Amino acid sequence: MPTLNVSRVLLSREFVDKTLVCVRSAQVVGNDGRATNTPTSTTFAGVVTSADGSVLTRRDDGSYLTGSITIHSRFLLSAGLAGQDADVVQWRGYRFTVTQVSNYSTYGAGFTAATCVPIPLAGT
User: Is this prediction's pTM over 0.85?
Assistant: First the structure.
């Protein structure tokens, strides 16, 4: 088992960004069968890194850019649950959908790493 605790690094002011906003939407299905989202916003701190850089995907009907990020934080983000849509993170004027959350508590109590993709995808 690893013995390195990266909590001090991930919480240090040189790395951490305290301006991240999580928009979490509870979903309720109405009598008409359509889901209605009720969003709540929470500001949290985390370290944002590039996950895979800018990737251009070309298709017959056009192409688009993705540029996913990874957020390391003690704030537990969600890629979606029953009754809850995937979290949307606002950072530096951009919006990202959380697509995957990994437990990184081996390297510091309560840390997770969330992979997020941009909204909207940028067409070319």
Answer: no
> Do the Cβ atoms of 116 and 71 come closer than 8 Å?
yes
Which string of DSSP letters, residue by residue, matches 59-116? ETTEEEEE--EEEEESS---S-BTTBPPPEEEETTEEEEEEEEEE-GGGSTT-EEEEE
CB 79 within 8 A of CB 86: yes
User: Which residue shows structure tokens 């979290």?
Assistant: 87
CATH 2.40.10 is right for the domain spanning 7-123:
yes
Considering only CA atoms, give the Rg of the chain.
16
Dist CA 18 CA 30 (whole Å): 36
115 alpha carbon, distance to own chain's centre: 5
Which neighbouring-strand residues pair with 27? 37
pLDDT tens sequence across 24-49? 999 888 899 888 889 999 999 999 99
- What are the residue boundaries of the structural domains of the chain, listed by start? 7-123
Q: Which residue has the tokens 């959380």?
A: 98
